[in-house]
């Protein structure tokens, strides 16, 4: 067993999606272990991710507040695969964020239940995590259609990561007309040991 921790560090905006001002940036998703076989499915260690919206504008960098920071922290077997599945949004209409902690727990439980109920090979698990996490948030928060800015799916074999802290960069942008474009970078760290 080895200690693994995933921490959202900050978000940098070069260009907002909203042409009239700043975006209300947030992330939904899950971080956890890919099942390696039927015997290990009962301990997936899936943690939901839901950051509160961050008001951000062009050329700004902001640290993650509530829901950000450490999003996964657990002892894990070295023969497993750490999976990170995240989606970035710009909130277009106000939501009820009062049950934030409960919603994060429900995301993790919903993703775990879906993975246990579906005989998905380990290599296909990451593709199932995002739609389930988004669906759970949408059902709980009655999410209006917010603008999806980018998706991030990464797998890290635990045994191949050296001990220490590893900074990861997630860039996503869309170039279109003056009305519909954006450019963001999210930084997060994976700590092992």
Structure description:
The chain is of the alpha+beta class. It has one domain (2-192): C2 domain (Immunoglobulin-like). The protein is 18% helix and 45% strand. It contains 2 helices and 10 strands. Helix 1 crosses helix 2. It starts with a strand and ends with a strand. The model is unreliable at 38-42 (pLDDT under 50).
Count of alpha/pi helices:
2
Note the main sheet: 5 strands, antiparallel
Uncertain runs? 38-42
**For the residues shown, what is the average pLDDT?**
83
CATH-assigned homologous superfamily: C2 domain
Named CATH architecture: Sandwich
Please name the defining characteristics of this protein.
Immunoglobulin-like; 193 residues; 10 strands; alpha+beta; globular
Characterize this entry briefly.
This protein has 193 residues and is an alpha+beta fold.
Layout: helices, strands, pairs:
Elements: E1 2-15, E2 23-33, E3 47-50, E4 54-56, E5 60-63, E6 69-76, E7 81-90, H1 100-117, H2 125-141, E8 147-157, E9 164-174, E10 182-192
Antiparallel strand pairs: 1-5, 1-6, 1-10, 2-3, 2-4, 2-7, 7-8, 9-10
């Amino acid at each position: 067993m080895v200690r693994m921790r995933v921490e959202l560090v900050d978000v940098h905006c070069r260009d907002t999606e909203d042409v009239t001002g700043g975006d209300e940036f947030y992330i939904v998703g899950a971080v956890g272990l890919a099942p390696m076989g039927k015997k290990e499915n009962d301990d997936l260690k899936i943690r939901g991710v839901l950051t509160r919206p961050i008001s951000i504008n062009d050329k700004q960098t902001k640290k993650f507040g509530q829901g950000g920071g450490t999003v996964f922290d657990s002892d894990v077997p070295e023969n497993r695969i750490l999976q990170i599945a995240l989606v970035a949004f710009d909130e277009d209409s106000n939501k009820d964020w009062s049950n934030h902690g409960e919603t994060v727990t429900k995301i993790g439980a919903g993703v775990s239940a879906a993975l246990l109920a579906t005989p998905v090979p380990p290599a296909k698990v990451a593709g199932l995590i995002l739609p389930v996490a988004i669906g759970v948030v949408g059902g709980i928060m009655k999410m209006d259609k917010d603008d999806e800015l980018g998706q991030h799916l990464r797998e890290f074999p635990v045994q191949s990561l050296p001990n220490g802290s590893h900074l990861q960069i997630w860039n996503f942008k869309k170039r279109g007309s003056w009305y519909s474009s954006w450019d963001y970078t999210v930084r997060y760290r994976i700590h092992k040991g």
